[in-house]
Specification:
heteropentamer, A mainly alpha (444), B alpha/beta (365), C mainly alpha (304), D alpha/beta (288), E alpha/beta (238), B: five-stranded parallel sheet, 18% strand, globular, C: mainly alpha
Chain lengths: 444, 365, 304, 288, 238
């Protein structure tokens, strides 16, 4: 019995060239109408301009790029094979243990970095502000993770709840003078209410039918916000939304009569950074609370029920679970977290308009959940960081910014189809991790 | 372990943005360089780049060369705030932007915090109504514009039926509402009040509605793309439609897209900078560089001129001095003389009614 | 009455347009079971190709309309199919067999990518062409209102119906259609029966793109103006149409498209135009509540 | 459960004149059947005879066109199953089923599968998740009990060592056992098993027999069993109903059914030349 | 020699499912493969089609190495599979399912083959315009076999054909297997849980355990083997 181990044979030089040539040819075909030809306006009419030089350069770049890519991929595969040949592949348990450890370590590092960030960048608006944006998306991602990642209900209109939260706070504060802290729970509850409102009619729908209705719901909310001017300010949005205060202390240069400012109270020189850093820590605390809340829920009956629902709805019913309630609770809790994020968003921006709540926003949040690895809390953090930072890095590439963003989304998905962190940690174990291996051996 | 390095790299890179280059004097523009309204962003950039080149050729401002930063907000309020923060970090002293009112409003809060002077072309009243000391508008406001446009309609189309249409954008709806109000004040009630969705293609339904109601004048708040489509489709349906629009109609794409039907477009805009004799050399220069100085090109140019003159007048680039100089002065730019009122709006926002004619626009006689 | 008739014609044209794109959507959905969010952008690419082709023809002084139209159609179909093929090859094929959501996200990424590619290479400005098909028929001339149907409206309706019939025939009656359906129902089994699954999927994408190309040419002819942003909104509407009609069903996509066109048209004509999207989605919700798998979709018997 | 076993009425479930139509197709046609308490009732019949449809009607997944399904619940008295939605059939009437094509929660571990099955008990203990979120002792104790209960069943079915493995990755035969364990965690009065022996080899089938007998004889759980494997049905059933084309064609003890000519014709098949005696071995022969 | 597997290894995800399989099938033989759940029987069948692809070893079919050939190409060379769970295309009619089977056969044979199938399985003729998904399990099994035969395969693979079937259908299935081999000279590789009957129809058999062949022999030898009897033929005493 001979064991011949096949290594997928490395390509010969000729094969590589042929492969790259083929790809370059495809690039050429695709390039002709968009790169090789372009229409320009000459005095009110169009004329066709040719850019064959550019096309040739592009095709050459594609050719070279493909050669390089193939070579790189082959190298990577070889190294991987060498590694797996060297050591016996780890067992599922060991892998799970390893992955879990990495996630835990990663989590603590991320937390440390998050807490320390404003200390190191106390004079850098941009960093603190971008980090705040990341955290908003982390929160949104965690909220949507409940609906999509845990309960498996594809929601393309999540932005609606974000909008409900933001508008609730904006209206409550500008019209009725509510403070941030008063409005927060009410807005969250309102968003949850909308979640249930959306959840009811679509209980029977599955998969993509559910997706399109949620997408429609998001659009309906947006269209209403745009058109109902008396209520929402229409396309003008709502401006001059009050910022949250630090236990009643405003972050202003000077306080109105009889009140104190934050800087004044603590005897600091006024700096606009105080508010920014305060906002940052505020969202950090909100996010951590969300994290604690969602991770705890996941280990409770309701959380397990969500996951069971994702896995098999019919089996859930056969186990006596009321799937209606489970779905609605997922929608409500996801919506509530989205609503909280919305409140914070409105408080940070000081201005909201329907343009912030488009379908594109829903798509990004969904991308965060999926790229992160469905159901993975740390994955959401990672993906949110990436998806916020890539366009920001892209600012160095001016008009290529969004192009790179789109390409990155495709590439990450192809690289990690299951998401960045796809490991699922059980909510409960009978045999604690270290002993599992031994138990299995014993069973053999 | 790979993931940790990734995170570390991300944090480091974030830090990388913090280093502000202070060698030159940095000024900035911001607007939609990508996305649906990218063509406006393009105009702003071309105008500003030319202005910076000219100013630097003259020796810069107060002996310092100007350096231009370009921010892309894609007309998304959230990105606008992010751009604003980037700009603050880059140590800019002056901002021309943003373009969309919904971006300018939240971004100007950031600039106010960081003591940066802003000169914008956003026309929504809220831009200056919020009482921020650092925001100046070098263009008229929707309400002023609407007043002129609506007044013109009421005066000239008294016995015709008029529809007021907007595209649901902050700009478009604001303008359309003001036009409707001005018309009503002068005794001409709009026969129809409609909204369309920007980005759609089919307006045949709207046009049939016009025909049914006997409307042949449309007061429009929105962008030129939609007007071009509406005109084309109206013509195909045999409806001769006269359109009254706002400053966005200055875009020559209107003519390219609508063809001869564009001759039915009236719009309000500031007095044509290109007709300003002082601007003639600049206009020539743009045309020589194959850039038609339409729309916001000259505004961006003027915004940079404005900064040059303000800084010279203040003899300082400190915010407080700049703001003071801005409020006190009267500045000569390619778009005319600029002086600002207490809110930061132009004292003489003078809107004029234009008409497109054979691919050019000119004052209505 | 005349007004209603005119609105009916307008609605039908608009609906036919949605339907045409929705057919492509639904076909691609059928075979890989995923929403191809980039479909709208493929359509947009084809519209740009059409503009370039028309401009070239104008420069070459071609005046025969049938000749010009067929040339543009062929060019657009060729290049757009190539785009369809490339999109499938790069963004979807590597994700075959992974979770259902992964290709959805890469499709969204692809959509952003295509939009920005076109913006960068062709510019952000709108691209117009001079009217190609002018004039039409006056169907009913009342004193107040003349009901018209233009040649291009007729062209759109006729093309859509023809393509719908042709593609339905292809899918239900031909060996290729069978192979396609077999890939949709059980990819592994299809391969075990000798069907080249990859090739079938690629071909389906190309056919979907070809349909989008026809739609792109029609839009260019009818509206005369194209910009890089047109794919998004139309894509969403077409997707809605496909779901309303029952995803996977070609006649359903057509029906859904027509319904949405008519709803939009009549809602805007008699009620509040600004809320017509609310109406569209509201009716979609209503229909799905009553028929959870769309109007002509196969009812999903709960398999227990 | 033992208390329940003492004073159970003779008939636990009474199916009367049950008819189920799908459009024009009649899946079940005027079927009447009694399931005695604390016994094993087998249901056999050709493929497509309507056996699974009967289960679906019984467990609330289908609403029967006509007919009644009365359950004499030991605690709650008579319940009409045809009026209950599926989750209430399991939760309130405690009629629990397994599926022909295994329906586990594949990405969850075996233990989690068994704990999810105790959802209603735990959910009540968690007081709308609030007690759970706060980690109150009442909830913690309930959770501990749930884990112990799951562990007991796992031990009984010799699955303990697999408790923390994702259920979907385990071999078919083991998944079948997990599904039964999961159903048992719902605390059934009547357990409906849909082809539990499909895909099991003779040794595994024999283990299944032992388990079914234990559940019924020791714990007093009534079992309704759909099965094609004669070595299971004939060995454990107290009573067998034969269905063909939606109608009951025979009923009785295994012996009676096996020798019923109509059953032989429609289901068991005539012994033909080559494997006459072999079939006897595989079907009923192993009784000894 | 119809089929030779030499030292075939295959992985299914992270599971090392086949560990050096050596199997031979001669022309005109019925070979049976028995084994417990999860022993790798179905994986072995699918690995013949390159799904999963063998990570080591060689598969030779009809004199040609097919280890690296595409799945659909292998099917076209003359191996047909009746898969576990039957995998009828549920939304195609019976007729269309049969046409799918004949997709790559010579169209000239189509009518004759169809007639042959209808003669062998009269029920399919009655149900020809019904959708596959609406058939009963037994009927589906008949359809799956007919579909496989429509391509006129040189080698027929049957994966658990008796699974979930009523005894009457199980008889029918084994009867067909026997007939196909005896009357048409069809070479058949059969995987079965129902070891007793499977070994009885087989010329030769293999026992698969944990991805390895642990026993081989003629059907009668294996039936008589105490190991096989203990593990696969007799239930424990419960």
């Amino acid at each position: 019995m001979s064991t011949v181990v096949f290594a997928r044979h490395a390509m010969t030089a000729a094969e590589r060239l042929r492969d790259a040539g083929w790809v370059a040819f495809v690039g050429f075909i695709l390039g002709v109408p968009l790169i090789g030809l372009t229409t320009v306006d000459v005095g009110g009419r169009l004329a066709v301009n040719t850019r064959f030089g550019l096309l040739a350069a592009t095709v050459a770049a594609v050719f070279a790029g493909r050669l390089l890519l193939r070579w790189g991929l082959d190298q990577a595969r070889e190294r991987k094979q060498a590694r797996s040949a060297a050591g016996a592949p780890a067992s599922a348990d060991e892998r799970a243990q390893g992955a879990q450890k990495v996630v835990t370590v990663l989590g603590w590092i991320a937390l440390g970095a998050a807490v320390a960030l404003p200390i190191f960048y106390s004079d850098n608006r941009y960093v603190v502000d971008t980090a705040t944006t990341v955290l908003i998306y982390v929160m949104l991602g965690w909220g949507l993770n409940v609906v999509v990642g845990l309960a498996g209900l594809l929601d393309l209109g999540y932005v609606a709840f974000y909008a409900v939260g933001a508008y609730s706070y904006a209206l409550l504060s500008t019209q009725y003078g509510w403070s941030f802290w008063e409005a927060l729970p009410v807005s969250g509850a309102l968003a949850a209410g909308f979640g249930i409102l959306l959840g009811y009619p679509i209980l029977r729908l599955r998969g993509d039918y559910l997706a399109i209705v949620t997408l429609g719901f998001g659009e309906i909310i947006r269209v209403i916000l745009v058109n109902w001017t008396e209520f929402s300010g229409g396309p003008n949005g709502i401006s001059s939304i009050p910022r949250p205060s630090f236990f009643g202390l405003d972050f202003a240069r000077s306080a109105p009569e009889g009140e104190q400012t934050f800087a004044g109270f603590f005897g600091l020189d006024f700096s606009p950074m105080h508010r920014l850093i305060f906002l940052y820590y505020l969202i950090l605390v909100l996010a951590l609370l969300t994290h604690a809340f969602v991770s705890r829920l996941r280990k409770l009956p309701v959380g397990r029920a969500w996951e069971a629902l994702r896995e098999d709805e019919i089996a859930c019913r056969a186990m006596g679970m009321n799937t209606t309630n489970i779905k609605l609770s997922a929608f409500a809790i996801g919506a509530m977290l989205g609503g909280f994020a919305g409140v914070f968003f409105a408080a940070r921006q000081g201005f909201i308009s329907p343009e912030s709540f488009t379908f594109a926003e829903s798509a990004i949040i969904l991308a965060i959940v999926v790229l992160g690895g469905m159901g993975s809390q740390m994955g959401v953090v990672l993906a949110a960081t990436l998806l916020v930072l890539i366009p920001e890095f892209g600012r160095n590439f001016a008009e290529y910014r969004m192009l790179l963003f789109g390409a990155a989304m495709v590439l990450i998905m192809i690289w990690k189809p299951g998401g960045l962190l796809s490991h699922r940690e059980p909510t409960v174990r009978l045999n604690p991790l270290g002993r599992a291996g031994a138990a299995r051996e014993a069973a053999r | 372990m790979k993931k940790q390095t990734l995170l570390a790299a991300a944090l480091l890179a974030l830090g990388g943005f913090s280093g502000a280059a202070l060698a030159d004097l940095t000024v900035a523009i911001a607007g939609p360089m990508t996305g649906q309204y990218a063509s406006a962003g393009d105009q702003i950039r071309k105008g500003a780049e030319m202005a910076i080149a000219d100013i630097n050729a003259r020796g810069g401002v107060l002996g310092q060369k100007l350096k231009l930063e370009v921010g892309d907000d894609a007309c998304d309020p959230k990105q606008a705030v992010s751009v604003a923060n980037t700009m603050v970090n880059k140590g800019i002293v002056y901002m021309h932007g943003h373009w969309c009112s919904s971006s300018t409003i939240p971004a100007s809060d950031v600039y106010a915090d960081a003591d940066i002077l802003v000169a914008t072309v956003s026309t929504n009243p809220q831009v200056t109504e919020r009482g921020l000391p650092n925001v100046f508008r070098i263009m008229g406001r929707d309400d002023q514009q609407g007043l002129v446009a609506g007044g013109y309609i009421a005066d000239n189309f008294k016995d015709r039926k008029v529809a007021v249409v907007d595209d649901k954008s902050a700009y478009g709806k604001g303008l359309a509402d003001e036009m409707a109000k001005a018309m009503s004040d002068k005794g001409l009630k709009p026969s129809l009040r409609e909204s369309i969705t920007a980005g759609e293609r089919d307006y045949s339904s709207l046009i049939a509605k016009f025909k049914q109601a006997g409307v042949d004048v449309m007061a429009f708040g929105g962008y030129h793309t939609e007007v071009a489509l509406i005109l084309r489709q109206a013509q195909a349906a045999g409806l001769q439609l006269t359109v009254m629009g706002g400053d966005t109609m200055t875009n020559a794409e209107l003519v390219t897209a609508a063809g001869p039907a564009a001759d039915n477009v009236l719009f309000t805009f500031s007095p044509d900078a290109r007709k300003n004799p002082d601007a003639a050399p600049v206009v020539e220069k743009f045309r020589a560089a194959k850039v038609e100085p339409e729309g916001y090109v000259l505004y961006a140019y003027a915004a940079m001129q404005l900064f040059e003159q303000v800084a010279t007048a203040a003899n300082s680039t400190k915010y407080a001095d700049l703001e003071k100089a801005m409020r006190g002065g009267n500045f000569k730019t390619v778009i005319g003389d600029l002086a600002f009122g207490p809110k930061g709006d132009l004292n003489v926002p003078g809107f004029v009614v234009y008409r497109w004619q054979g691919g050019q626009y000119d004052y209505v006689k | 009455m005349a007004y209603a008739l005119q609105q009916l014609i307008n609605g039908l044209t608009l609906g036919a347009m949605y339907g045409l794109i929705a057919i492509g959507y639904t076909m691609v959905y059928g075979i890989i079971g995923m929403i191809n969010f980039a479909h709208g952008d493929i359509f947009m690419v084809s519209a740009f190709i059409a503009v370039t082709a028309f401009t070239l023809l104008a420069a070459a002084d071609v005046t025969s309309i049938p000749l010009a139209l067929s040339f543009v159609l062929i060019v657009a179909i060729f290049f757009t199919s190539a785009y369809g093929w490339a999109v499938e090859r790069t963004a979807y094929r590597p994700l075959r067999g992974s979770t259902r959501l992964a290709p959805l996200i890469s499709a969204i990424g692809m959509s952003i990518f295509l939009q920005n590619t076109v913006q960068l290479t062709q510019g952000a400005r709108v691209k117009p062409i001079p009217p190609v098909l002018e004039g039409g028929l006056v169907l009913w001339d009342t004193p107040a209102f003349a009901v018209q149907i233009s040649w291009s409206q007729m062209l759109i309706i006729v093309t859509t119906v023809t393509l719908m019939v042709a593609f339905t025939w292809m899918i239900t009656q031909t060996p290729f259609g069978r192979q396609q359906r077999s890939c949709e129902q059980d990819r592994t089994m299809a391969a075990l029966l000798g069907v080249n699954v990859d090739r079938t999927i690629s071909l389906t994408f190309m056919l979907g793109a070809a349909l989008a190309a026809v739609a792109g040419v029609m839009v260019t002819v009818y509206y005369g103006v194209v910009d890089f942003f047109i794919g998004f909104l139309v894509g969403i509407k077409a997707f809605t149409a496909a779901v309303l009609g029952g995803i996977g069903s070609l006649p359903g996509a057509m029906l859904g498209g027509l319904l949405i066109g008519l709803i939009e048209s009549f809602w805007a004509a008699y009620l509040w135009a600004e809320y017509k999207d609310v109406a569209t989605f509201g009716i979609l919700c209503l229909v799905l509540m009553l028929r959870p798998s769309g109007l002509l979709g196969r009812p999903e018997v709960e398999k227990v | 459960m033992n208390a329940a076993a003492l004073n159970t009425p003779a008939t636990l479930l009474s199916v009367q004149k049950l008819t189920m139509r799908f459009g024009g197709l009649v899946a079940i046609d005027d079927l009447s059947l009694d399931v005695p308490a604390a016994s094993i009732t087998g249901i056999i019949g050709p493929n497509g005879a309507g056996k699974t449809t009967l289960f679906n009607c019984l467990t609330g997944f289908y609403k029967p066109t006509t007919g009644s399904l009365r359950l004499a619940h030991p605690q709650h008295g008579e319940m009409r199953l045809e009026a209950l939605p599926s989750h209430r059939v399991a939760r309130d009437a405690q009629v629990v089923r397994t599926f022909q094509n295994i329906r586990l929660f594949p990405k969850m571990t075996v233990l989690e599968n068994l704990i999810v099955a105790q959802h209603n008990v735990l959910q009540r203990a968690s007081k709308f998740s609030i007690a759970g979120l706060l980690g109150l002792p009442g909830y913690r104790q309930a959770e501990q009990e749930a884990i112990e209960r799951a562990a007991t069943w796992l031990k009984r079915l010799r699955l303990e060592h697999l408790a923390d493995h994702a259920a979907g990755a385990l071999p078919y035969g083991i998944q079948r056992r997990i599904e039964i364990a999961r159903a048992l965690c719902v605390d059934p009065v009547l357990l409906c098993l849909d082809e539990p022996a499909a895909g099991l080899n003779p040794r595994e089938s024999a283990e299944l027999n032992a388990l079914l007998l234990y559940l019924c004889r020791e714990l007093g759980i009534a079992i309704l069993l759909i099965e094609h494997d004669m070595s299971v049905v004939m060995n454990v059933s107290d009573h067998i109903g034969v269905i063909s084309y939606g109608r009951k064609i025979a009923e009785g003890t295994p012996e009676q059914v096996r020798n019923d000519p109509e059953v032989v014709k429609a289901y068991l098949g005539e012994d033909d030349d080559e494997d006459a005696q072999d079939t006897a071995v595989t079907t009923g022969g192993a009784t000894a | 020699m119809m089929l030779t597997m030499e030292g075939v290894h295959a992985h299914y995800g992270h599971i090392h499912a086949l560990r050096g399989i050596d199997v031979e099938v001669q022309v005109g033989e019925i070979v049976t493969l028995i084994g417990a759940n999860g022993a790798g029987k179905s994986t072995l069948m699918m690995s013949l089609f390159g799904n999963p692809r063998a990570s080591a070893g060689r598969i030779v079919f009809d004199g040609e190495d097919i280890t690296r050939v595409h799945t659909h190409e292998i099917a076209r060379r003359g191996i047909a599979l009746v898969p576990e769970g039957r995998r009828i295309f549920p939304r195609m009619t019976v007729m269309e399912n049969l046409q799918m089977g004949a997709a790559h056969a010579d169209p000239a044979n189509y009518d004759a083959d169809l007639a042959r199938m209808f003669a062998m399985f009269p029920i399919l003729e009655q149900r020809q315009s019904q959708r596959g998904g609406t058939l009963s399990g037994g009927e589906q099994q008949m359809l799956a076999i007919a579909r496989a035969l429509m391509s006129r395969p040189k080698l027929l693979l049957l994966d658990e054909p008796s699974l979930g079937l009523a005894p009457i259908y199980i008889r029918k299935v084994f009867q067909i297997v026997r007939e196909l081999n005896r009357d048409h000279g069809m070479t058949i590789l059969l995987v079965e849980q129902n070891a007793n009957q499977a070994l009885r129809v087989a010329h030769r058999g293999y026992v698969l355990q944990h991805g390895e062949i642990t026993l081989a022999g003629t059907g009668a030898e294996l039936l008589a083997s105490p190991e096989v009897r203990a593990a696969y033929l007799e239930g424990g005493h419960g």
